[in-house]
Amino acid sequence: MRVIPLRNFFLILENYKHCNSPLIHRFQELTRRYWHPWNCRIKLKSYTFLNAVTKATSNNRYQMGVESDPIEFMAWLLNSLHVDLRT
Predict the structure, then answer these.
(1) Which InterPro entries match (predicted)?
(2) Is a pLDDT exceeding 80 seen at residue 44?
(3) Rounded distance, CA 15 to CA 46, Å?
């Protein structure tokens, strides 16, 4: 959420409106709620994003409540967002 080019990309709807990926739409929803000026960040519904992550992984590699490597997760997430935006 703090990487400015990534944040700005997902705050503009026209950048990804052609994409049908649930992962893209849940990530943009999380980003927009996080940066909404009047939204309390405690009320973020991150479980919808986590649910999309669980469905996007082929072998349920990332699940709620299961600890995993954060660097590996970020690499997977950025790669998945990139691939989904290209299709």
Answers:
(1) Papain-like_cys_pep_sf
(2) no
(3) 22
Closest CA relative to residue 25, chosen from 15, 33, 16: 16
Asked whether 82 and 71 are in contact (CB, 8 A), the reply is no
Q: Which has more pLDDT, 40 or 70?
A: 70
pLDDT tens, residue by residue, 61-87 = 777 777 888 899 899 999 999 999 987
Cβ within 8 Å of residue 39, ≥6 positions away: 33
Task: Yes or no: say if 34 and 44 are a contact pair by the CB < 8 Å rule.
Answer: yes
SS3 letters across 45-77: CHHHHHHHHHHHCCCCCCCCCCCCCHHHHHHHH
pLDDT higher than threshold 70 for residue 58: no
Number of domains in the chain: 1
